[in-house]
Amino acid sequence: MISLRHIEIFHAVYQAGSISGAARMLRVSQPSVSKVLRHAETLIGFSLFQVVKGRLVPTEEAHLLFADAHEVQDRVDVLKEAIGNLRRGGDGHLRLAVLHSLGLDFIPAAVSAFRARHPLVSFDIRTDHSREIIGTLYERACDLAICFDVPPRPRLTSVRLGAAELVLLFHRADWPDAPPLIAPDMLHGRTLIRLVNVGVVGSLLDAYLEANKAPTADIRVHTYYLAAGLARQRAGVAVVDIFTARAVAGADLDYRPFADSLKFDVFGLHLEDQPPSKVGQLFLDTVAAAIPLPAT
Predict the structure, then answer these.
(1) How many CA atoms does the CB half-sphere of 130 hold within 13 Å?
(2) Are strands 122-128 and 55-58 parallel, antiparallel or unpaired?
(3) CA distance linking residue 171 with residue 34, whole number of Å
(4) φ, ψ for residue 154 (rounded to 5)?
(5) Which CATH number is associated with domain 163-265?
(6) If I label 214, which of 67, 140, 162, 195 is the partner at 20 to 30 A Cα–Cα?
(7) Other C-beta atoms within 10 Å of 42: how many?
(8) Phi-psi group of 27: left, alpha or beta (phi > 0 → left; psi -120 to 50 → alpha; rest → beta)
(9) What average pLDDT score do residues 38-56 get?
(10) Selecting from 1.10.10.10, 3.40.605.10, 3.40.225.10, 3.40.640.10, what CATH number does the domain 4-87 have?
(11) Do domains 4-87 and 93-162+266-290 have the same CATH topology?
């Protein structure tokens, strides 16, 4: 029966295209690679590679087997990473899933500040939409998630970290005399850009626009970053979260809060049976301290 070592060697030789390349990739000797590969071929009963004009060429059988071998090797690599994390004590590594808008500037700043105080803590960070972020928790692909919505899902625990708000982002040239606060009637006559969002933030904005008979949207997008890009190109004014606005504001872009503050909460999420480690809790505290508004 072939072993994981056989699969590892086959995978490396197939990718490297030579015994010597596989040996360098795995940091072992060429004779050991050749020996394991020959043993694998003996066990399965057919050749995986042939020498053609001095080059090592995969057989048709090898091509058919590679996809499965690649999947197995990926799983082995994940297992090795998990073992490494445990060997480092577990608490020294954090896997985060955060919203795209938080990944523009807010989370990078929080991670940088945190690592200045805890330089031995390593991070694995991904950005995604809320639904996919929740999925990564259940798949145990991340330890902590930071987002704006807490769906009614089993085994999910939320911690309120603070509050943020929606703001109006615009090109300075389009609104050079923008007032400190934006009233809903000021949106009339302007192209409105907003996120397609069915969560808490989307419902908050829908209710506000409907109650004030304001424009609903001329351009709908799926990320705040795209909304900001459109505002930068003077395609309209964009309703974005404060995190995005702070990340992109500069010489060309500015933002203002609404007269009726559109506040929403920011949450840290984890599974009930996977509570934050000591380092994870310290990081959540760091995030909470940096969120623009106190928890509501």
Answers:
(1) 18
(2) unpaired
(3) 63
(4) -70, 150
(5) 3.40.190.290
(6) 162
(7) 9
(8) left
(9) 90
(10) 1.10.10.10
(11) no
Delimit the domains of the chain by residue range: 4-87, 93-162+266-290, 163-265
pLDDT at 167 > cutoff 90? yes
Geometric angle at alpha carbon 253, from 251 and 257, rounded to 5°: 130
How far apart CA 13 and CA 33 sit, in angstroms, is 8
Rounded Cα–Cα distance for residues 5 and 25 (Å): 14
| Strand pairing category for 156-171 and 253-271 | antiparallel
pLDDT at 204 over 60: yes
Three-state DSSP class for residue 197: coil
Does position 78 have pLDDT exceeding 90, yes or no? Answer: no
Distance CA 263, CA 282 (A): 25
pLDDT at 296: 47
At the topology level, CATH places domain 93-162+266-290 in D-Maltodextrin-Binding Protein; domain 2 (3.40.190)
| Average pLDDT of every residue of the chain | 89
